[in-house]
Design goal:
globular, alpha/beta, 2 domains
């Protein structure tokens, strides 16, 4: 979350308020909020929290952005938001309300989102399958090493940036792993 806040602040330095969109039904939501609040405090950016645990609540959250004078949105890496239908809904709402949104997974940018920084879930799922196979062959789960992602990708969609009237800073483009034109 700190890197997402940092990138969004760099992308939209004029943003008065940044919002983090979280799913209140996730047990990790409060931790995500705390991490994001700390990152915003360090960057000197005001942060608001919008909670959405249903499709209707996502619509309502985006509808409230104007009155909050939001300059950008950070999406929580919650599986609820990353599901195909919700991902498409959030991308469409970002376009409709003309707000820059940073996402935690590259699938968002491939589907038309503006920018993402995070892990590609495919290798994680592949490793989970390998571990499941090893467990089914008799290995004890406690004997398997805990693994964490080591590669993070920065993706930028220039078509979406143009549609939002944004110019992506050269510093972000230079660090991008992939730029969609």
């Amino acid at each position: 979350m700190p890197k997402l806040v940092e990138l969004l602040a760099e992308l939209a330095p004029q943003a008065g308020v940044i919002v983090v969109l979280v799913n209140p039904n996730n047990a990790n939501a409060e931790g995500v909020v705390r991490n994001t609040q700390e990152a915003a405090r360090v960057k000197g950016v005001p942060l608001s929290v919008l909670k959405a645990g249903t499709g209707g609540e996502i619509d309502a959250a985006f509808a409230s952005l104007h009155q909050l004078q939001v300059g950008g949105v950070v999406v929580d890496p919650d599986g609820f938001f990353n599901s195909g239908r919700r991902r498409e809904q959030i991308i469409a709402l970002a376009a409709r309300f003309v707000v820059p949104v940073i996402y935690p997974h590259p699938q968002y940018v491939a589907a038309g989102g503006l920018i993402s920084y995070g892990t590609d879930d495919a290798p994680i799922y592949r490793q989970a399958g390998i571990y499941a196979g090893r467990i089914l062959k008799g290995e004890r789960p406690a004997d398997l090493p805990v693994q964490q992602p080591t590669t993070f990708e920065l993706l930028v969609n220039l078509k979406t940036a143009t549609a939002l009237g944004l110019t992506i800073p050269p510093s972000i483009l230079a660090r991008a792993d992939e730029v969609i034109e």
